[in-house]
Design brief:
Number of strands: 5
Number of helices: 4
Structural class: alpha/beta
Oligomer: single chain
Helix content: 40-55%
Distance between the termini: 65 Å
Amino acid sequence: MPADDHTGKKVAIVGGAGVLAWWLLGRGEGRAFGRAPDGDEGGSRGARHVVWVRATRIELDGVPTDLPTVIAKCRESGVAEVHATGDATTRVVRDVLASLGSAGVKIYASPDVASLSPAVAP
């Protein structure tokens, strides 16, 4: 008679632990699955807006818009995440960063964009 190695029990325990970990990370209070830590979303004022500076336009949350609208919306939320494509003009990127900074918006950006303005949060 072969020895019982309890393979089924081991698979059930490991699988159950994996499902529990997935549930806790996805549904719990942790930072899992792309959620920002507390305070990074502008607190009670609103969610972080994503600003893209491209060669021919500025986008706010995926919608082409003008700079005054970007400033007004980001001022409401208090937080902006700024990106720039490789073909974006440096002057336009600096103008966007300076305008957001002077409006009191907390700016998050990648190091290449952040190097263009001292107003960017680390």
